[in-house]
Amino acid sequence: MDERQFYTQIFGIQLPWTVTDVKLDVKSEEVVVRVDADPTLSLGCPECDRTAPRYDKRTRRWRHLDT
Predict the structure, then answer these.
(1) Under a CB-based contact definition with an 8 Å cutoff, are residues 4 and 20 in contact?
(2) Contacts of 20 (CB under 8 A, 6+ apart)
(3) More confident residue, 45 or 6
(4) Is 33 within 8 Å of 7 (Cβ atoms)?
(5) Residue 42 neighbours by CB under 8 Å, 6+ apart
(6) Could you give the C-alpha distances from 3 to 25, 29, 40, in angstroms and in order?
(7) Taking the C-alpha atoms of 39, 2, 29 and 15 in order, what is their torsion angle to the nearest 10 degrees?
(8) Exposed, middle or buried by CB within 10 Å (0-12, 13-18, 19+), for 19?
(9) pTM assigned to the model
(10) Which parts of 1-67 fold into alpha helices (H)?
(11) Residues 19/35, Cβ–Cβ less than 8 Å
């Protein structure tokens, strides 16, 4: 199993989202996992389920479980 499959499983990532990259930085003790979806897709609103274009393209960081 490669790193992308591993993080897809432990984070529970489902389509249309995919883990696109995993980088290990031993010096700073970080694992950086990039999750993305096809930028041409319209995604559904979690409240009303209407489709809408993507607008938020910021990179976000959060601390997850220790790996």
Answers:
(1) yes
(2) 4, 34, 35, 36
(3) 6
(4) yes
(5) 51, 52, 53, 54
(6) 14, 16, 26
(7) 30
(8) buried
(9) 0.70
(10) 3-11
(11) yes
- Does residue 45 contact residue 52 with C-beta atoms inside 8 Å? yes
Q: What length does the chain have?
A: 67
State phi, psi for 30 to the nearest 5 degrees: -125, 145
pLDDT in tens, 21-43: 999 888 888 888 889 888 788 78
Which tokens belong to 43? 């995604």
